[in-house]
From TrEMBL:
Transmembrane segments: none annotated. One of its GO terms (molecular function) is oxidoreductase activity. Pfam families: ADH_N_2, ADH_zinc_N. It comes from Nonomuraea solani. This is Enoyl reductase (ER) domain-containing protein.
């Protein structure tokens, strides 16, 4: 037998643990071209809530309906040989939220020993690296602002910006405790705290000479504040929009002054997708072993705790990437 997390009902608002069920099902039997994987870890991410009931349109993953099993990045162990895969091989795939998965061979990636800890393959460092190097083109001496700095992307982005030569790295988060960790553990120079005063005023104080780069996970008033703080020629890359994704109203929407974008020659790009992972993984492994990068994460034990973990991620309880360990 196997267990998996399914959507039970479509919530009126943001999903809570009672909207999901941990179902016991027969262990899947792989068909032709599939491999049976026993999952060991899977990533819990807040944007998954946008798939519930199709609340957000045009998402790359189909919307979730009652009875559907949740998807997500996972690391598992091959159970039976298939193609070049052998029992015991560790692989990455996107059929998380279940104990066993029959995955098409073309959708699994063998892990090897590039990283010192297999769970680090669930890091969003590759996303942050691509956004900062390719999309925002961070340059030595830049002042970089990372919104949502204590999340899965932001907790890697600040460290990577520093390694790329940023002169000052500023983040935003939702609590003074997280702000202290961002400065004390991850090398942020200053942190804007939601609820501690107007975001625009806090950012102006943290970056009195303005910002050159924004890596935006949040949108909303933080994007608006970044426009006000931008230096001429600033480069913005939009990675997420959690202020809107995690809102049941229109409070996440914000008006930007197009004239300011023109006057300051601000370029705004959407994140363009992942680059080739092999280059990033080699860099990441070397930096982890040297202690130049860390992978901030929280491990939650057992699939029964997964629905609660999603709610905790949505409400901002944790620091870094949240992973369910099976």
């Amino acid at each position: 037998m196997s267990r998996e997390v399914r959507l039970a009902t479509i919530p009126d608002g943001l999903p809570r643990p009672e909207h999901f069920v941990v179902a016991e099902v027969p262990r899947p039997v792989p068909g032709d071209g599939e491999v049976l994987v026993r999952n060991r870890y899977f990533h819990v991410f807040a944007a998954l809530s946008t798939l519930v009931g199709g609340r957000v349109k045009n998402t790359p993953i189909p919307p979730l309906r009652p009875g559907d099993t949740l998807p997500g990045p996972a690391i598992g162990e091959v159970v039976s040989a298939a193609g070049e895969l052998r029992p015991g091989d560790l692989v990455f795939h996107w059929m998380g939220w279940r104990e066993y998965a029959a995955v098409p061979i073309g959708q699994v990636t063998p892990l090897g020993d590039t990283l010192p800890d297999p769970v680090a393959h669930l890091s969003k460092g590759d996303l942050a690296y691509a956004a900062l190097t390719r999309d925002a083109e961070v340059r030595p001496g830049d002042t970089v602002f990372v919104s949502g700095a204590a999340g899965a992307v932001g907790s890697m982005a600040g460290q990577i910006a520093r390694l790329l030569g940023a002169g000052r790295v500023i983040g935003s988060t939702g609590s003074p405790e997280k702000a202290d960790r961002l400065v004390g553990e991850l090398g942020y120079d200053a942190v804007v705290v939601r609820g501690a005063g107007p975001i625009e005023e806090q950012l102006a104080k943290a970056a009195p000479d303005g910002i050159d780069v924004l890596l935006d996970n949040v949108g909303g008033d933080q994007l608006q504040a970044a426009v006000a703080a931008a230096r001429p020629g600033a480069r913005f890359v939009l990675v997420g929009a959690l202020s809107g994704q995690l809102s049941t109203s229109e409070t996440g929407l914000v008006e930007l002054d197009p004239y300011q974008l023109i006057l300051k020659r601000i370029s705004i790009r959407a994140y363009q997708g992942q680059q080739e992972r092999s280059d990033w993984l080699e860099r990441f492994g070397d930096r982890l072993r040297a202690g130049d990068l860390t992978f901030p994460h929280v491990r939650v034990a057992g699939i029964d705790q997964a629905p609660g973990a999603l709610h905790e991620v949505i409400t901002g309880r944790h620091f870094g990437t949240v992973i369910v360990e099976l």
